[in-house]
## 1
Amino acid sequence: MINFEIDGKPVSVPKNGTVMDGANQLGIYIPHFCYHKKLSIAANCRMCLVQVEKAPKPLPACATPAMEGMKVFTHSGQAVTAQKGVMEFLLINHPLDCPICDQGGECQLQDLAVGYGASSSRYTEAKRVVANKNLGPLISTDMTRCIHCTRCVRFGQEIAGIMELGMAGRGEHAEILAFVGKTVDSELSGNVIDLCPVGALVSKPFRYSARTWELSRRKSISPHCGLGSNLIVQIKQNRVMRVLPRENEEINECWLSDKDRFSYEGLNSEERLTRPMIKQGGVWQECDWQTALEFVANGLKDVKEKYGAESIGALGSAHSTLEELYLLQKLARGLGSASVDHRVRQSDFRADSQMQGAPWLGMPIAEISQLKSLLVIGSTLRKDHPLLAHRIRHAVKHGAQLNVINPIDDDLLTKVRNRAIVAPDKMVSMLAEVLKAVAELKGVEIPDDAKNALSTVSASDTAHAMAASLNDNKPAAVFIGNLAQHHPRYADICKLAQHIAQISDARFGVLGEAANSVGAYIADAIPFGNRNADTAGGRHGGQGANASQMLGMDDPASETGCKAYILLNLEPELDSYNPQRAVKALAAADLVVMMSAYKSHAAIQENYADVLLPIAPFTETSGTFISTEGRVQSFNGVVAPLGETRPAWKVLRVLGNILQLDGFDYETSEQVRADVLPAGNDVSAWLNNSLGSLAVSPIEAGKENKGSEGLQRIGEVPIYQADLIVRRAESLQRTRDAAAPLAWMPGSLMMQLGLRTDEVIRLKQGEGEVRMPVAQDDSLPANCIRVVSAHPSTAALGGMFDQITVEKS
Amino acid sequence: MLSAESLKKIDYELTKYPADQKQSAVMSALAIAQDEKGWLTTETMDFVAEYLDMPSIAVYEVATFYNMYNLQPIGKYKITVCTNLPCALSGANEAVAHFRERLGIGFNETTTDGKFTLKEGECMGACGDAPVLLVNNKRMCSFMSNDKIDQLLEDLSK
Amino acid sequence: MSQPAQILLAGLSPSDPDDWRLKNYEQREGYVALRKILSEKIPPEKIIEEVKKSALRGRGGAGFPTGLKWSFMPKQYEGDKYLVCNSDEGEPGTFKDRDIMRHNPHMLIEGMLIGAYAMGIRAGYNYVHGEIWDVYERMEEAVDEARAAGYLGDNILGSDFSFQLYNHHGYGAYICGEETALLESLEGKKGQPRFKPPFPASFGLYGKPTTINNTETFAAVPWIIRHGGDKFLQLGKPNNGGTKIFSVSGHVNKPGNYEVPLGTPFATLLEMAGGMRGGRKLKGCIPGGSSMPVLPGDVMMQTDMDYDSIAKAGSFLGSGAVIIMDDTTCMVRALERLSYFYYEESCGQCTPCREGTGWLYRIVHRIETGKGRLEDLDLLNNLADNIQGRTICALGDAAAMPVRAMIQHFRDEFAYHVEHKKCLV
Ligand SMILES: Cc1cc2nc3c(=O)[nH]c(=O)nc-3n(C[C@H](O)[C@H](O)[C@H](O)COP(=O)(O)O)c2cc1C
Ligand code: SF4
Ligand code: FES
């Protein structure tokens, strides 16, 4: 530690610490613009000049290393003169248009100018004018206001991992811009808006919609990916106007993904459902709650009488709250059906009987930054988990080795040590190879439950390299991504990965797909008795159908679907593994109740729903999400429910009452939560990734190995289609990540099929077909076609990783 | 995008730097590209970025930082006259005046026949030879009296 | 007047087109110092000791003692270290490095070899100013020659010393003469200076320990090794060892490079340069390149050409560029041109320089074009204060110092401009 003094107060900082670090510790404010604790030090704004004893000139606090015994003065004559001088320079070319600037009220320059600026300017020459840039649909520019602090440039280089902005030109002509004709497309781009200390980079969706002082700030939790980012939601007149990060070093640090930041537009979407609706005689009509709920209750009773309680299925999205999912399953089980699930995109449920708890990250999020080796299996990492990807980049920058087994080779913006880009149906054998290699390396036997399956496998060089990487670099971790979780052989992937982790002494984690993927298990929104079957006694009502069975995906020939469905926060034509079958199963049912915040266009169009109940999105209800690291985060509604929208937990409670079910007497969502969670809300005892004694199926011929002949589809979920809210966030829908889907395939396949780039082809799965232009991606495995799922233009297709056929059109 | 010959030159430059520091060759690569193409188009800069494994904006930063890259089409001969103080003391401004008169253009302008572009330069490190000028970045001409300027223009006009 | 001693330009016959070649250099005792070091296996510390003794000070402008700088390089460091030669001569008025490289490139190469040997460095770069393309090409040829002759490369002259040297060219940015901007530029980036500390000796090229010296500094080293540091020191004055090339430009009869021992009176130098053009009166002189304060002619005539004497007179020896201005020179106009230069060449990263240089230029321009105000002179001084010492690199100082000195020494002339809206001269 280095001991020194600032303004007469003693302070000590670690070796390599700066004067700024010391000041921050002491709570002494030194004015600054370019300095940011998460970015490299540029020392270019010169605002933080301070006096240092014995130094002939003022020194920048942000860049000056602390020295033993040094005496620093932040408010001395010399320091203040220097700071005022810099402020004058900053202001000469800065437009003094605060009243019309979007940053007004939250501008660091404005704030500091009050303290350090002179009342009138000595600068009488013409001010510089800088042309604005089109950086895309999310960031709006007013470059004349730029003070060249380069925070935005450093953010791209250091955090987002991709340099999209730069400072071109030199001297007074230097300006921040993207390369000619390019926009800023990073999935973390919105952070530059927060970073920009002035009004040069501002939010395009928010622009001119409110003055910052008119906004009230409310805390919330992101409902999107499993990270559980902490949010500040800003509102005006009961409308969400903007979302900002709430700093939490252990989760999102001071960042937000664009999805978390800009999805709020979906909350104010035209498509919001504001009154209950019933379809009568094929025509949709609005009605009051009473009518709607009675319709639902009677419908459910009818179905139960006619076909038995088991024919009622409840499906809730894992973007719903713990309380909502808990009451959903309670309702179903109360009616006598254990057919409850949230895993609508999962296709392999073989592991269900062996699960020991809720699958989770297996470690705290923050510790990802410290990893020295990782194996990521089946993940569109950057798009599914933008900030986890950032943590991983950070780890790699500090020496970690990243290993990847994936059917796609998207740029992770960081060094990948070993990569196996293999067709979906080869992922299992690749993992088997790694398991073999790691067992060899450690000189241990292959565990019994995998032994038979692995008998024909021999490890490739890549597998050996991955095994060594995990084994030799600690701490290490093996992660299962979303794509692997949707994979037709998820159980085998999970089991093999677990063995690899165990033998190599690495952590093992399942990356949570949705905000409440962990919570959904804990709420028992699953069709089997799980973590507290004994403690919660009769809650389960035995074994029910899983999502796949409920939606008729298991066996197309038989009519396995339910007769009544309660859908919570779901659009099955976009949210399920096989939308084609899902829609068919729903259409065949007697009753489909959709609890949704939206007039789901498709539901009405596809005509499978019978009643729509308007439920509150996360901003209009209180609730709880349990993040992928098992962190329980409760939040309150930040605005009143729109129109006649009601929080889903209340709707389910009333439904329970009408159906005269026991245990539906909750007054508050906290009471619901208290029913689910143990005292103190510590769920760690219920988190468990182990799959017990599940045996791995023979490597090459698993039952679920659906895509082993012909062409395989790689149907990942695109970043801005993952849930109902983001689908309706207009600005995000204009980003490059939301561009119209293409049928990506390797050049070899195009050749074989005689296709040209941009040629429109017909893609067929089952009975459905879509038309789409061809695009070439030589990094894809042979015989694979990458066609996203969860998109309206591909909803007519079948399973995400199933066989697909191509025809010229 | 660039000729094989240019690529060969760039590859030679690359041998000067550690294998993981390809970016170090960006200045030469841009200069070589400019020699071939006359000026740096977006496509050319993009190509160089790709070739050297750099973000294209980083290439653009470099191209716009250094004076001798042409980011706009220019005349066949770019004449850059140093007008910095030492040269000005020894006739640089008179030389510029002579160019203006002979070519009918000012700084940053190109003659209508597309032959000449006139540029103001900063110190070229040859102040003892003032007035000095550069033709197309690489050919330095010293002691440029009006007669020598006439001679130069005549030679280049051929 | 006795014939001054020469080291760097000694024995050259510029009219001979082969003057610079290896064989000619070898005839001028070329590579003798290197051979001696390698054959006698002189310990590296001894070499640094010798350079320290010579009182050789950096010829790039700051005048930092070279031996001391070399001793900063970490000795036990495992990884790569780099040696960089700063041949980005762009300081207005300076044109000496160009002549060294055109006529004596091997002397530079040998100097770098010795430096590399002394600091345990295996790779180096010579960064050549963009505008002197033919000189860059000559350096490329000279390096090829040296490599072919076994002076560069692996196991030089059969020893276990290896050193690779490469030339890198600039492409038009004065700021790349600043050593850390030069390193950034070498790394393929914009030439934006780095904040120091860390200094290049601990974090230099590609983040590795690096030593940077000026061309003329390196070129002096072989002589020091051949003749001993003491001899070199004795050529000049205490603390100001050796000879120095002065680039004399402006209103003299014979502008050019003159190598003289440090401590030579200015008057002698002026005489060597053929005296004032047209026999006019010396009005002012910038003795160390355009970044240094101007001195009035009479002060100059009393001053000797060495670091300490010029500092005493109120300016700096800088890069040794002597810009001579006679009584026909309008000082406002002169300052306007210089201010324009710093405004144009500011890299733009730090606030006082990016914003301040433009402001300075605009005010001086206003005065020059008859739109000045009397308060402007104080404003200029105050702005110069607000720039100097507050920037990342010394370009801020370089922009500020000429302004202050011009107003200090020629205030009346500026005031006249303001009041009469025209020139005094
Ligand atoms: C704006 C600026 C321009 C400079 N230009 C040059 C230059 O052209 N050549 C040079 O050798 N040093 C130049 N320097 C000085 C270098 O930063 C550095 O001090 C020098 O190369 C060190 O070498 P030396 O110790 O041998 O003098 C410049 C410094 C500044 C601040
Ligand atoms: S002083 Fe000028 S040249 Fe130096 S770093 Fe600052 S802006 Fe760049
Ligand atoms: S905060 Fe220190 S220079 Fe900008």
## 2
Amino acid sequence: MSLSVRTRQVGSIQVVEPEGEFEVYTASRVREVLDELTAVSECRVCLSLQNVTFLDSKGIGVIVEGTKRARRSGGELVVLCESERFMRHFRILKLEEYLALAESMQDAVARLDKGEAAHGNGPA
Amino acid sequence: MATVRPDPHSPGTVTLALPADPRLIRVVRLAVSGLAAELGFNLDEIEDLKLAIGEACTDRLEHAPGATLTVRLSYGDGELTAEVAGDGPDVGGAGEVGEDDPSGFALALVEALTDRVEREVDGAGITVLRMTKSAAGALADGGPGGPGPGME
């Protein structure tokens, strides 16, 4: 296996952590997990690329699709990415505005909390 | 310990012929990274080549689903050229590069990460994707590791 996908919950945030090569053959594994999580109304999902060693256009397609689905569900998907290489690829594809990119887990949580506030569904 | 390395200044070719299976694109990437490292490409360039050539393989598997994928890597003059082809004509006819890449991601990455990209359809109707990248520094400076010992 060149990719494994772990999911864990941090507060009300679902954190998805693929580890390995996120590419043409393995991308469907991440898609399956994201499909499930982003179908939930007002979902708050963090996709961490911290342990991804290789990302191709198919992997990027899954990230974009997951983002679309999360927003359609009234939620948000934040992409945690510290890799300058992946950021460069997102810039080449002009996705740096479209994707909700965070450089740290703290930043990701902050963006998802803000998203929740924007949806008028802040913590009681 | 002597290591036999390809001379980056004299041309050579490494050809991979593999079953048309997306799982094996990873093997192409490993071979590309090994060869590019031997040729003195730097780490960033190696990653660019792995991604670009991998994308070409994905394109060919999707549009010319045959039995075999061929990747011909030729080098010389500080450049690495990859020619990627399936073993049959494109399903639905030959189109432009990226025609069936609705997001355009694959092609945009290949174009940004290599110096030249061409698409050619040969006499048998087989599409060949050709891409070339030159090494920024190492090749021009005399190849892997620069002038080796015993060059006096």
